[in-house]
Amino acid sequence: MGEGFVPSYQDEEERLKVRKEKDRKDRIKSIIISVIASIVALGIIFLGYTIFNVDYSKYEKYEEKMDIYGFSKVYDNQKANTKEKVTKSEAVKMILSCLYNVSSIDGIAMPTEETYSNAIWVEYAIKQGIVSREEINASNANDKVKYQEVLVWLYNIKAKVLNIEPDTTANFNIKDINAYNADQKFAIYDLLNSQVIVENFKRVDGNRRLYKGKLNELIVNFAEEYNTITVGNAKININEDKIPENSNMYPYTLASVQKDVYEIPFKNNGNEGVIYPIDYYKDNKEYYGQIKTYVENYYNTLLNIDYNSIKAGDFKRKIKKYVYDEIDDNKLSSYIEYVKNNHIKMSGKAAAQLPCVYFDGENYRVRVKLEIKIESSDTKDNLIYHDLESGKTSYNSDLITICVDTIMQKTDSSETLFIKEGTINSIISKTSSSIVSKED
Amino acid sequence: MNRKVLLILMTIIVTILLSGNVYAYDNGREVFVRHIDKESGQIIDGLQNSNQEVVDISGNSSLVSNSTADDASISYSEYYNYNVSDTMKITKTLVMQVDGKKYEYLGYNKCTSPDLYTAYDIQEQKKALVRAGTASLDQPYDRNQANTTYQTISSNNNDVTIIDFYYSKKDADNIKPQLYCNTSVWTGNESGIRSNVTYIPAGEMLRPYFETPRYFVKDLSYEKTIEGGKVKYKLNKFVVYRIEEAYLKSSESKHIGDSGQIEITGELVGDGPASAIEGINNKSTILVQNKAQLTDELNYLVNNFNNKENNKFPGRNEIDQSNGDDSSSKDFDADLVVKARTYNGLRSAKGNVVYREYNVLDGNYGASIEYESKNDHFINVYTPVFLEKPQITTSSNTSIDHTSLNSSTVILADDATFEIKLSCKDADFMYYNNISPERKARFVSYYYLIFDFDVIHNGVQYEKGTVIQMTNQALYNADGATYFHGQVAPNETLSRDNSEHKIIVFASADNMRDNALLNYVADQEVAIQIKKEKDPSERKYLDDSGNNKSNFLTDIEHSKNNTDAQYTGWATLYGDGYYFAMDSVTVRTVSKLYDFKITDCTDLAFKSAFRDSNTNELQGINYYSGIRRLFVYTNANKEVTTLFDRNNIKIPGTSATTTLPLGPYKHLSSTYISAPKLGYRIAFDVKTTGYYEPTGNDSSSRKIGIKPTYYYVSKDGSTIEKDITLYYKDQSGKYKKFVGSDYSIYFKPNDGYRYKSNSSTADTSYLSSKEEELKIGKEEFFLTDNMVTLDDSGYIQSWYGEFKLPNTTVAVKNGDNVDKHLKDGYIGVKFEIICYDQKLGQNIYYDSENKAASPKTNTTQWDYEGYLGFSNPGQSVNENSSLRIQLEKGIWSISNQSLYDFVKGTVLLYDIDARAADDIN
Fold first, then answer.
1. Of A127, A289, A409, which is closest to B118 when you measure between CB atoms?
2. Which of A225, A240, A274 is the last residue of a domain?
3. Contact B600/A at CB under 8 A
4. Residue B688 dihedral angles phi and psi, to the nearest 5°
5. A315 and A407 housed in the same domain
6. Highest mean pLDDT among A12-26, B23-37, B624-638
């Protein structure tokens, strides 16, 4: 027996009334339950969001650096978007790109017959012992990479390729450190100690799939820490006092370059389309080594002159490789003769002031610091090659340091920059009291 | 602006714009090649190629030379700069070997970059990883890729490429002579056996040689050439070290004390200095033969390796094959002589091989380089002395040896002259076996002889035990032997001793420099033994058997011992590598067995011939063994032996003599022509010499054995049956074979008269007066101690016996029925007479040829004593010998040797047709 029981003495109307009343109570009951359930559900969602939500904002700053350093375009989709996941082969590519500061490894690695994504990078990494074929191969190259894998690979780069002594001291309290094997622990501590990992390190969560924000952090910090983005591993300046006022015009600045050199105004021929170093670097960084070699070798020839031994043939052979225009033998002969007649003997040293390479709207320019010591000369005028060709340049001190923004040009067939020769006076970028230039 | 001005302006603008490109200097591509030793990480000097191949856009090949990069502060092996439109093919080094070193190609790393230094940094990083074993090479060596080529590909025309070819030294110091350079020594007298020890007698030649590459490559490199549009690999450098000469250095001693250097002297053969090399430390140059052949071989290599087409230049395996085969003894032709007086002992043989640079391509020579031999080869100076058994012969005619003794036991009579032949013999020593007797003879310097009796040599008498030194005279005698001539000293009475005497012979090795053998061994020890004056326990160098003991060498020349088994190689060192060999000759006097005669016959018909008709005593008629008498007597205790014709043996009225056999026509009465009849006895005796004292003990006594044999001859001598069987009737009257039967006779040796004719042996004290049994039915019967009489000194003995065939004897041919008696003839009875001397272990045979005679034909005692009138010992019997036996019906002519041999020893002819019983009946 239940609520639906109707005594025999009640009529049909009474029974209907009872039923309606019952239905009304049921509806109220259902609404209450639904409201409570909704509140509980929202609470759970909120709690979950609170717990599992990733703070990507910390990594957005690395996206910009990735662009500046020319690494963003190396990603498979050529974007460094923080939230995007990374594949295994892509991660290997990014690490090698960081190591060699290149966007293509064609010249470094041998071609491979493998056809999976980024195979040439991966195969090379395997040959170099950075990763193992068990870790990454054709079948898993497109799998999403885990954070802990990348940490070990980067650690391998440091220890094996760069041959830098790791620092695996446990200076940090990592909550989930016991979740990792020995290699992973070493990698975590070393990368923390060397400040390659600086964000969200209390809990590594290495088993989670890696997103670009974290990889960007690793790449950028690794590049800066170990100077992989500079030529010859020149040290990046981190001294706040030495940061030039126009540092936003450079991808980085070097500790070895004075900030006032960086602060010398860029030449601008007035045309549109000036490209400052910060923009030039990302697409041309592979050539910075070549640029440095060319300008330094060129000027070292020009600055080291001895009237006793100078020969036109030797001089020409030493510089012709670096210059854009064909050497005018007559002008060169005149200069040699001038050197000999005036017993000019000087020594000097040229240093490209990287990464100060820019496009002034018409020409590419490289800032070069020249240190000159005049050891003997019967004259103070026109001591340097090409000085004779335009006006007169007088050198009033035996020790002279100047900066020039050397003009460089590309050929049609190459990205290589050659020196567009001219007088020192025409390219000098910072006035030196020791040099007086006069127009005839 | 009109159109003309505009055109001019545009032209100017375009000209300006293009001007940069018109004059732009295109650097082309640069390639730096580095040939790197993986182990050291350093560039290997000398591996740079002189050029590389460039292929233009049309596919045409040309060569670009290795040049110098401007202002490149990195080190490199090769540098090339080529047009941007070309492709460059870079190969690994074509320098296969440089300065004797070769490198195994491992693969390469390459890096292309706009910047040399960036590429350099990366290559250095890679190198570090490769060297650490972390990384593999970009392109490891591929066995199937003989021509390792890298084709430069770059999107940027001004890129710089660095190619690092990696190599590893194949060996740490990959010059073969440094790995092995073995001295060996070839004597020309050994073959087939390799060992680390060469045996060489002092004074012999040896040929040191070196097992080392006849040449090995110093520099071998190729360069690319282009012929007909194809790249070929042409030899541009092929320098070898070829063996030029070698020399054996003065040797360091090895386990041989303080002065073990091998001493070499003698003139060099071949092109070497002609002067003799004296002293210890001189080098001896040994030149290489077959230089021309070696040159040919090298030129062949040039032809074989040169001008190889693409992909076929020699790979790393072929390099190995370009080293020469090892030299052998045939490549050296200088023989050296080990100094004659070099002590025996082991020396290490070290040497140097001198190689000289030889440019195969132009035939020019360069600097020399020497390598010392690596192995432990030893020269064992070992001068063997192996004595042939010394042969002693005597020319004395009194030496008659009918004994059974070993032929090496020589009979020396008193006063005998003799000769001892001394020589070397071959032995189980390979070197020794292959050289001439003359050279063998050189190994012996002296012979030493020690006698245990006094001897006279070269007119000087030496007391027994004295060491007589005799220079080896082998070189002067055709047979390579040395002969010692001597005579038994007059004071010796060897014959009386009747025992062995010993002559000890030493031969000393030529390299024995001092008198150690003489002083320590011969004089002291052997002499002591011979004189028996000291206790044998005092012997120092000889064991009881006379062999030199191993410590002899140590004592006479310290530290020259050869017994270190480690260096014995294929053979054990011989026990007599101690400078001398020793042997001995045993000589002795021997007894004689002689003077057999029949002294009686009981045939009634012969009674008158033997006995006095009145007294019945023997009247001294003897039937002798022959017409000659061997007369032996002693004089001053020395044996005197003479042989002379007997007198008074002719039977009056006939041509017959009283010699054996007793038979027809032998009766003193010429009218009685018959032979003794069957059943009658004969009596006989025979003499022996040599001191003898009867003991009656079988083990220490002599005895005379008689072996009778029988044959049939017809009475006319025309028929001879050599194989007959004798039967006699036993007591039951049945025929029984006589030979082998128990048939005996008994006789009384001391019958009072049978010894009368042996006046020299008058001592009858041992002669039995009882009936003594003679088992004449046996194949041999014996005369024993109680049948002997002696001379006064006991030196000569006469032995007595009797014999008969039974009265019932019949003879049938072997195999015939016993009833088929042979008739009309005689039964010839032959005696084989033997003296057994069990004490001396010698037998003397009446029938044996004289071992001391030469030739030995007809030299039995029968022959010497003139049996049947034979008078020419040493010669054969023939028709002219006139040997005959008169028979009743004819003459039995003994006209050939075989018949004489058959008849010889016949003592009696029984008449087969007459019996004693007939007389009774």
1. A289
2. A225
3. no
4. -135, 160
5. yes
6. B624-638
For residue A2, is it within any domain? no
Kindly report which listed range (A201-205, B494-498, B626-630) carries the lowest average pLDDT score.
B494-498
Whether residue A367 sits in one domain with residue A314: yes
Q: Do A290 and B115 touch (CB under 8 A)?
A: yes
CB A215 within 8 A of CB A191: no
Q: Are B395 and B420 in contact (CB under 8 A)?
A: no
Number of folded domains that form chain A? 2
CB atoms A161 and B129 under 8 Å: yes
Which residues on chain A are in Cβ contact (under 8 Å) with B110? 110
Reading phi first (left if > 0) and then psi (alpha if -120 to 50, else beta), residue A17 is in: alpha
Three-class HEC string of B476-523 = HCCCCCEEEEEEECCCCCHHHHCCEEEEEEEEEECCCCCCHHHHHHHH
| Residue numbers of the domain that contains A383 | 259-438
Note the ipTM here. 0.82
Does residue A218 share a domain with residue A71? yes
A77 lies in the same domain as A221:
yes
Nearest Cα residue to B623 out of B643, B644, B606, B605: B606
* CB atoms inside a 10 Å sphere around CB B676: 31
A308 and A431 in a single domain? The answer is yes
**Is A147 a member of any domain?**
yes
Do A372 and A431 sit in the same domain of this protein? Answer: yes
Same domain, A326 and A428: yes
* Tens digit of each residue's pLDDT (9 = 90 or more) over A134-183: 999 999 999 999 999 999 999 999 998 898 999 999 898 989 999 999 99
Say what the pTM is: 0.60
Question: Is the Cβ of A108 closer than 8 Å to some Cβ of chain B?
Answer: yes
Q: Between the CA of residue A161 and those of A40, A60, A316, B127, what are the distances in Å? A: 55, 29, 39, 10
Rounded Cα gap, residues A312 and A385, in angstroms: 12
CB contact under 8 A, B70 and A317: yes
pLDDT tens for residues B763-791?
Answer: 999 999 999 999 999 999 999 999 999 98
Nearest CB partner across the interface for A108, out of B116, B122, B134: B122
Beta-carbon count within 10 A of A112 CB: 15
